Amino acid sequence: MERLLWVCLGGAAGSGARYLVSGWAHDWLGTGFAYGTLAVNLIGSFLLALLMYVALSTDTMSPAVRLALTTGAMGGFTTYSTFSYETMRYLQESAYLLALVNVGVTVVGCLAASFAGYAVARMLIGG
Question: pTM, whole model, 2 decimals?
Fold first, then answer.
């Protein structure tokens, strides 16, 4: 139960940060492109890799803090960071096929799921 509370606490902070960063990016760069989403995904990918390296290479971060910052904060900030970290690890381990499958299935699968969700919503609501 304590682990869940750490994840929830970090997730709330990450979600709030995502809202702020995305808003700032749109204010600064405009709304002609998904700058907010791109900024969050780039920043989140960088931060998750940095946090995981520190957490796994040193004794400076307790397991509870690691959980709050990675699964919680970075998970609330962007799940894309987890996808990119896992793909990076496959590439570092020379598991090229797994990396390629992860990228392909994630991109194609998520796009297909988005189209399916949109289609179901249109069927239910009309339009």
Answer: 0.79
